[in-house]
Amino acid sequence: MSALTLKDKTALVTGSTSGIGLGIARSLAAAGANIMLNGFGELEQINAIRADLEKEFGVKTAYHNADMSQAAQIAAMMEVAMQEFGGVDVLVNNAGIQHVANIEDFPVEKWDAIIAINLTSAFHTTRLALPSMKAKNWGRIINLASVHGLVASAQKSAYVAAKHGLVGFTKTTALETAHTGITCNAICPGWVLTPLVQKQVDARALAEGLSNEDAKKSLLAEKQPSGEFVTPEQLGALAVFFCSEAGNQIRGVAWNMDGGWVAQ
Question: Known catalytic residues?
């Protein structure tokens, strides 16, 4: 695959100031795409990320701090992308939050926030990105679902509902764009050692009196047969593959990268 697969194209990755989103943004930049970052963080840190991307890959970057639970802020971000880059060619809906509790104890405001950020935000970015993609007859929409878009776990009702919904939304988007040069697919990762997951590892190590390494092995052993974490770089490589010509007829799939989790 050419190192410049995405030269002169622009990728917007939501939730891309750390973790999976940043890994995917880096992979798309390495393939030549200009990058629109989104997420929370100190401006100094975000400026450093932008400078690194620009220097390492020779691409242009921009940043918008849209709160992905707010439709008006999402619309403002998409407008900035249009002004800065002439629209979004590759849309990666990655922003997400999590809360763990039994259904009867689940805080209503947490449910609403998870559905808004993990699911509804993808509707808003997609509806606003499609007109310019259709005008160019080219686009890639990549939704970061989860293995929890395919199977469930206890105490994660809102997250599982949102991710199943995102897989369904992916299929509908793919069907509506089937006669165009736009594709829409979902990536469904298993455990990825993001800062969020590291907190779960730390909590397990503390609760069970384990070393951090043993806590990681314990976490993986429950769900992920490979015993290894998926990496942001691996997810980024899959996103770039979806953007290549080889991905032209990959439409509406939920592609799990999960060390065998869903195969069980």
Answer: 159
